[in-house]
Amino acid sequence: MSFSFILKNLVIPLTACIWSVNGFAQQGEVDLAKLIVGKTIKGHNRDVSLVTSGTKGTCVHLNEKPGSGVAWLEEVEFKEGVIEFDVKGRNVVQKSFVGIAFHGSNDSTYDAVYFRPFNFKSLEEERRNHSVQYISLPKFDWPKLRSEFHNQYEKPVNPAPDPEEWFHCRLVVKNQEVNVFVNGNISPSLTVKQLAGLKGSKVGFWVGHASDGDFANISIK
């Protein structure tokens, strides 16, 4: 089995990081603030900062703005493997879309998996069915997928996490299939085939329109 990205193993538990410099893997204690200032984490349509959030302590924060935004991990290339991270949104309808972008070629061409925490425990079944979403931009955004492939590329998350708390996502990308596991559940919340066959390798934290988000403990294998 081969994984096509620069590093054999990237872990960012905020202060510890394995990254790549000129093609060679480096490991050590890293001040994430320096990574942000040095643009190793580079925001598109978002400001990227360090904040303190509950049990996670210091984490990466993307602020709220119109349109979607990404914080790209500039030193990382990812084609196939496993991405794990902790994420926290808000229980505010239509103002919390949080996830991960991958297979990126640029700021508008990438695959993404994201969550709508405000739908996790909704009393409406159809809203719960829209809890986790796969998109492939620019051709397959959520309106097109929802209208032409109803509930195929978005699903509920069972058991539903607390929409105001941190939860864990394990994203497995292999053989053009995407599986999304939440909070250690052995059954995926979402399983889809990649739609556009994107060949890009950029990966980064993602937030949707009018949404902010907190991220921690990302590992890429």
UniProtKB/TrEMBL annotation:
Signal sequence, start to end: 1-25
Domain 3-keto-alpha-glucoside-1,2-lyase/3-keto-2-hydroxy-glucal hydratase: 40-221
Record carries keyword NADP: no
InterPro entries found in the cross-reference section: AL/BT2_dom
GO molecular function, one term: hydrolase activity
Pfam families: 3keto-disac_hyd
Keywords, alphabetical: Signal
Protein known as: 3-keto-alpha-glucoside-1,2-lyase/3-keto-2-hydroxy-glucal hydratase domain-containing protein
Species the sequence originates in: Dyadobacter helix
